[in-house]
Design brief:
Radius of gyration: 18 Å
Number of strands: 9
Structural class: alpha+beta
Strand content: 15-25%
CATH superfamily: HORMA domain
Number of helices: 5
Order of helices and strands: HEEHEEHEHEEEHE
Largest sheet: 7 strands, antiparallel
């Protein structure tokens, strides 16, 4: 009999991959100096982990919030925005992790509940191979992206499914921390509707959309792509990114993004 992951275990796997992806992207896109990172292995693949406690803690809190919303089946996209480290905070690149939910919203378990699918789930033995392929594609993504030429920072944008409530962590609901998410500016959210052109093909006059990987996780599908914005290619505009509105302390957001 297949050994399927439970619903909560599947979400945990997706969250763990996002954490590895975020650390690796901050390194390979040179958002922070290389000396702040160390090389580690995950899914049998070399990747990068930030050694700065404050940044690691921040990313952990962000992903804890993302995981809470994913458990509700409320997340459509998680977007790592690389943007100019300036007052304009112009978005230059967006790494988009888009989720397709294969179970109806009514079947999403209530808080504290869980279930194991009877078929079409993610088998325990497939986790390593699936996320290894995702991480390899992510590591190679810089090879077809043009260089970022200016000082940059980043933000995490969370785009919710239609009809979902605004994201709010349990800690914020209980009053232990301030609200972590605020509505994001439209320009920070992904512009593509998921049906755009292929790798390196222009989505408008200058911007490009490059698919990286699609993976089936049983109860959900995850599609990964990178968008280079038109502003990145404008003459006189250096490329990179800073913090958009959407997450704890580094906040700023189709559909409804936070």
């Amino acid at each position: 009999m297949p050994n399927f992951l439970t619903y909560r275990e599947t979400i945990q796997c997706a969250r763990d991959y996002l954490e590895v992806a975020f650390h690796t992207l901050l390194y390979i896109r040179q958002v922070y100096p290389a000396e702040l990172f160390r090389q580690v292995k995950k899914y049998g693949v070399p990747c990068w982990q930030c050694r700065n406690p404050a940044l690691s803690e921040y990313l952990g809190r962000v992903l804890e919030c993302v995981q809470e919303e994913m458990l509700k089946g409320a997340v459509r996209r998680v977007i790592l925005v690389i943007k100019e480290a300036s007052m304009q905070e112009t978005p230059l690149e967006r790494f988009v992790f888009e989720f397709e939910w294969l179970i109806p919203q009514r079947d999403v378990p209530a808080p504290g509940d869980d279930f194991t699918p009877s078929d079409k789930g993610l088998e325990t033995g497939d986790v390593e191979d699936l996320f290894r392929a995702c991480l390899l594609k992510l590591n190679l993504s810089s090879s077809h992206l043009s260089r970022l030429k200016t000082d940059v920072s980043f933000a995490v944008v969370l785009e919710m499914r239609d009809g979902s409530a605004a994201p709010e962590s349990k800690a914020a609901r209980d009053g232990h921390v301030p609200a972590e998410w605020i509505p994001a500016e439209q320009r920070q959210a992904a512009e593509d509707d998921g049906t755009g052109p292929g790798r390196g093909r222009p989505s408008d006059k200058f911007s490009t959309i490059s698919p990286l990987e699609s993976v089936r996780l049983g109860l959900i599908n995850m599609d990964i792509r990178v968008e280079e914005t038109a502003e990145k290619f404008e003459e006189g505009v250096d490329s990179s990114g800073e913090v958009a509105s959407a997450v704890p302390t580094d906040r700023k957001g189709k559909g409804r993004a936070y």
